[in-house]
Write a structure and sequence with these properties.
The chain has seven helices and six strands, in the order H-H-H-E-H-H-E-H-E-E-E-E-H. By secondary structure, the protein is of the alpha+beta class. It is elongated, with a radius of gyration of 24 Å.
Length: about 240
Amino acid sequence: MTEAHSKFNNVAKASLVCGLLGVLFPIVAGLGARIGVWSYMVGALLVPVGLLSALSAVILGVVAMLRLRKVGGRLVVSAHGAGVGLLMCLYLGSQALAMQLAPRIHNISTDIEDPPAFTLAPTLRPESSNPLAYDSERIGPIQREAYPDLGPLVVSVVRNELHGRVKRVLEEMGMTVTRDDPAAGEIEAVATTFWFGFKDDLVVRLRAVEDGTRMDVRSVSRVGIGDVNANANRIREVIKRVQAA
């Protein structure tokens, strides 16, 4: 093996290592935050490190492939490193873009003027959590523009029957029901995300109306300025499942 072969084989190996680190950093960042090894802020700082590592894998891999091709070397390792790095760059880049495009709100309600109130959630949330108050004048216009489809659901069944259906749906979605009050027509639950273990509080309010029962849902993130549409998507899923149940 010539000196050029050896040199750029090492570059190819470095590319593969950087690519694997680009995968490992985001996984470890989320896992560590979820099990409490570090705060979500520390985990969030490790994700860009993974992106930089993945980008390095692409650059080193391309350089190694171009040079090894000239000297007749094998391209497999460098191609794998560049490929892994490129996939992670695309994935993490798409997540970063989604964060930029999503509205910077984390408190979503199907009733903007009279959002469902939390009773138990204030006692469960750490002091550093986002405030639970829904500012209709500030959040309302942003929510209407971002999620014009979100609104109350009216189901032609009595409230007690719908209450049981809603509770089952929340449990089927993997949420932890923290408060179940059929008399008040209210259910509170906590949703925990798979990555990072972020906790969001959710409340469902059921009110009897002329055509049956009106269901309003509100979902609030405990941390973060925005939620990358997580709360709106969760509310949509609750509505969809209740309708299908």
